[in-house]
Each structure stands twice: as C-alpha cells, then as structure tokens.
Amino acid sequence: MRWGIPAAVGLAAAILLLLPTAAVAWDVDGIAEGDSVVLNGREAAAQEREWASSGTDPAVRLTEFQRADLCGVTTAAPTTDLNGDCATYTGAVQIPVCEVGPPVQPLWRRDRATPSSEWSEWRYVTGWSCPAENLPEFTLTDFARLPIAPSVLTIQPARPEVLVNMPAIVYTDPVTQAFTTDLLGFPVEVEATPTSFTWDFGDGTDPVTTTSPGHPYPDHDVAYPYPHPGTYTITLTTAFTGRYRLAGTATWLDVVGTATTTTTSPPVTAIEAPTRLVAGDCTTHPDPDNC
Amino acid sequence: MDEVSAAGAEAVAVYFLQLLPYAFATGDLADYRELSHPDCIFCASAIAQVDEQATAGNHSVGGLIEVTSVISAEIDTGRWWSTSIEIIQEPSQTLDSSGQLVEDFPETIPYRMDLAVVYESGHWSIREVSHERTDQ
Question: How far apart (Å, rounded) are the C-alpha atoms in residues B75 and B5?
C-alpha cells in the first residue's frame, strides 16, 4: 500500500503528541537562581556604612564592624585573626579577582549587651567580595537629583495655529541620557531612559499616557483634534526609568521607581476655518483678504 | 522557626529547602509560597516548575534533600541573615498520573545553597537562593 508508510508515520506522530510534554523531573540545578551572595553582601555593606556614619561613641556602642582576612576555611564556622591565631586553620581561602578595583576584605561584627559587658568574639558577616557587590543602592532620591533634561516636545503642524477638529500631532525624541556621578565614594554610571509619556493638551480634557513617544507625520500615533477654538499650552510629562553600575563594570542594577520631567509648549491657538464661496480660486483671485 | 534569631533563620532556610521535594511530589505550594519573597527569582522559578508539572498531570518521587551542614550570619540585627547550607539531593523521578516514568534523574548530587533570609513585619521569607554543585 503506497499510503501505508506515511500513515504509519502520522500515527507515530499522533502517539508522540499524546505523551506528556512537560517532562520535568526536578533537580536543584534546573531551578533558576538569583544572586543571594551579592544581596547579602550589599545588605551587609549597607549595615556597615550605617554603623560607620552613626558616629556612636566607641565607649558606649554595642556593635562594631571591621574588615579583616578570613582564616583558612575548615568545616568550623568562619573566623578571623581578630579572634586570635589563624595558624590553626589550614584550608584554602578563595579571593575573587574583580572587574574593577581590589577585592574587599570579609566583614566581621562583634556585640556586647551593655557598655560595661565583654565584647563577643568577632562573628562572620560576609566573605571576600568585589567593590561592585558593595555598591550602595542608587535610590530614587539620588536618581531624581540628576540633571535629567526634559524631553523636547515637537508639535505639527509647526506653527502657532492649528485648525479646530484637525489633529495636532505631538512627539518627542526618546533619547537615553547618560550620567556619571559619585555614590558615597563609588564612581557610578547612570542611564535614564524615557518609558512613559503623559500628554496634557491643556483644554481640560484628561491627560493621555502612552508608551510611544509619538512620531512625526505621516507615522503619527499621538495626536489631538481640538474640538473648540482657543489658546492652549500642551504639557508633556516624561517618566524615566534608571539603571546604574559601578563605573567600568558590566552589570547594571535597576533604580526602583521613576523620575519625571515636564515640558510645556508655547501657546497653541486652535482656530476655525469657515468655508465660503469665492469666485475662482484663491491663487488667482486672492480676494477677500482671508481667502 | 518562631524564634527571631540565627537559629530561627537556619530553621526557616532548611524547612524551605525541604519543602521543595514535597511540593514537586504533591503540587502543594501553600507553605512554599508563604515563605517566598515576592522578589525571589529562585522561588518564582520553582513555583512555576511545580505548577507546570501539576498542569501536565505529573508528579515527582524522591529528590529528597539531606542537609549536611548549616552556617549562618546575622547581617541586620533581627531582620536579615545569610545562611549557607550544604545539601545532598537524592535521585528523583517524574511520573505521569498512571505512574509511568516520564523522566529520571538517577544522580545523587551535593550542592551548596546560599540563602538570604529576612524577617519583616512579623513574617519570615526567603529573599533569594543561589546554588552551586560542590562535586565539580
């Protein structure tokens, strides 16, 4: 039978389709992961900075942080020469090679119940890390403080008057702006990218928010036909998302939240264009004056 | 786990890891979700895999996690701990609803699991998990 072989192939394909498709026996390696070591390190560095800037009198403070080498790693809890002699610990300590800057020593902490109590031993907080992993968070306050240039608002047609009921086209150029700045002693690169645009056409109608920056005629996708004559100003509020990284490193971190800029247009006058009968066309008979 | 201390954080972290084979075996994610921080990438990935497996009508057997050592450090007093947990994962198999073998993971694999454990608003959660095979 000439059709026998294709039919058998089709049957096999049908059987394969009936088999369960989500064959996911699970193993730990198959589960995606975040970087908890970096999260822990950044949190620890933040605690250390907060402690260092609190300026509590050393005589009365109940917590101290210090950076110091890690003794050889054994199965025992990690310890440091601050607690005594590292010589009794023999394991190897892995020290990272960093993209930028020298590696940062492990962080240790000790506590006491009262200013007259004995200090505890130095306890391990985090291990060796790289400067990028100790970068403070670039907060929304930091981000909003950057001199982000407001979007340039362009209106078409490019004259102060538009016709009632004809679309006034608006658009902006969504350029990403780059900055370099200092974050608590760390040189950082920051980028601000416009991601949301809110257009207020100034005639009392609700503002419109778009993810499109708008486009010039004839590809325009943000436009507003003024229904009534009048003089209006158009206000564009641009929301920027941000990301930052230690200067010279590859990994960007997101700024939580958005910063906004506001752009206001020159006055736009919407005028009516009444129709009237004239003799001939306006090119050859420019009469009356408003032909 | 009721204790807000390093011991409490360690207990939470170990319990969280041991919930994994349970969730893959039963599809029950109630406790696992309860302990998963909304920003935890590992947690979301595991939840998606359990849901996907359950939707396909499959479940897993085995894959139990044996904890061999736990080290923790308090990073922010009473709020944030790091824990480093050495585990051995036993072999696991995925079976369909009739008990037929769908996929087999015959290996016994040791991992080091690094967790960020937080206690916020009276509630423990796992902020993030990283894992690394320790036999390679």
Answer: 11
